[in-house]
Amino acid sequence: MIQIRQASFAYLNGLVLRNINLSVATGEMVGLLGPNGSGKTTLIKLASGIIRPNHGDIRLGNTGLSQISRKSIAHSVAVVPQQFHIPFAFTTTEVVMLGRFPFIKTLSGESPADRQITAEAMALVGLSQLAERRFDELSGGERQKVILAMALAQQPKLLLLDEPTLNLDISHQIEILELARRLNTTQKLTVIAAMHDLNMAALYFDRLILLKEGQIVADGTPSQVLTEDRIREVFATTVKVEMHPTTDVPHIIVTPKRNTVR
User: Fold this and answer.
1) d(Cα 34, Cα 225) in Å, to the nearest integer?
2) Which of 81, 143, 207, 210 has the most other CB atoms within 10 Å of its CB?
3) pLDDT 10s digits, 96-141
4) H or E element: which one contains 207?
5) Residue 9 shares a structural domain with residue 100
6) Do both 61 and 2 map to the same domain?
7) How far apart are CA 169 and CA 140, in angstroms?
8) pLDDT for 156-174, tens place per residue?
9) In CATH, what number is assigned to the domain containing residue 188?
10) Same domain, yes or no, for 207 and 100?
């Protein structure tokens, strides 16, 4: 699906990613982990073509991403960003319809097919009953589902999620990740997500990639990546890793640095 070869990227204040080599096959579900500033969001932006590497090459299928127009990329790749601001009083339907923009012909306006795909995307994430609600009146969890529906309205082959559960309560976190997992399983949708919660990542992603200071330090199954020594090395935090009581994945238990338990 996507190949990143020897990719490096620097903002004005310094190098963020260095010599990244990463291949993700069609149908994989991959979680990106790492401390703040390790390069997770930048890697998502590179994979989507929003930014281009200073060095290296990124290929979508057999074609270099730099050779594909932004509109053509949007036919295959959809992004759910950390934050999404709508400056106008758009309804849920109008926001989700923005996902059809790459497919709408200039001056032709939306077609019945576009409206049908938009309605199906909203139904898929459970938003049909909020179709006419204003986006700015929705809760944080509902807004995140709207943005996910907008991405799904693009009918992508590759879905990129940047901290999709950030600031959501536990029920909405599970709902978003369960949906991503279901789409991955039933539609072979390739999913790459930057994640903050190590335990949620272990539960929902078969493959995890751990970043530290802009480099990949581990790539494998949750059991291979989330070891006590590696978490201590990357996050500078002492944890205890046990097996989850109901699934065969590691479960990270944070241990206090001092005796603060009451």
Assistant:
1) 11
2) 210
3) 999 998 888 766 778 899 999 999 999 998 899 999 999 988 888 8
4) strand 207-212
5) no
6) yes
7) 9
8) 999 999 998 887 889 889 9
9) 3.40.50.300
10) no
How many distinct structural domains can be found in the chain?
2
Per DSSP (E only), the strands in the chain are: 2-11, 14-24, 29-33, 55-60, 63-64, 77-80, 158-162, 190-194, 207-212, 215-220, 239-243, 250-254
Site of tokens 């986006």: 135
Residues spanned by the domain of 95: 88-154
**Token pair recorded at residue 187:** 């539609």
Q: Can you give the pTM of this predicted structure?
A: 0.91
In whole angstroms, give the CA distance from residue 237 to residue 228. 9
239 found inside a domain: no
Select from 30, 13, 12 the least CA-distant residue to 4.
Answer: 30
The pair of structure tokens assigned to 239 is 């944890």
CA 126 to chain centre: 19
Strand partners of residue 78: 159
The tokens 């200071």 sit on which residue? 213
One-letter amino acid at 220 equals G
Q: Are 164 and 183 in contact (CB under 8 A)?
A: no
Same domain, 66 and 190: yes
Same domain membership, residue 164 and residue 149: no
Identity of the amino acid at 148: L
Give every CB contact of residue 69 below 8 A, 6+ residues apart in sequence: none
DSSP secondary structure letter of residue 160: E
- How many H helices and E strands in the chain? 9, 12
Same domain, 19 and 137: no
pLDDT along the chain (262 residues), means of 10: 92 86 95 93 92 91 87 90 81 93 79 92 91 89 90 94 87 90 92 95 96 94 95 91 90 78 57
Residues 70 and 191 in one domain: yes
φ, ψ at 240 (rounded to 5°):
-115, 130
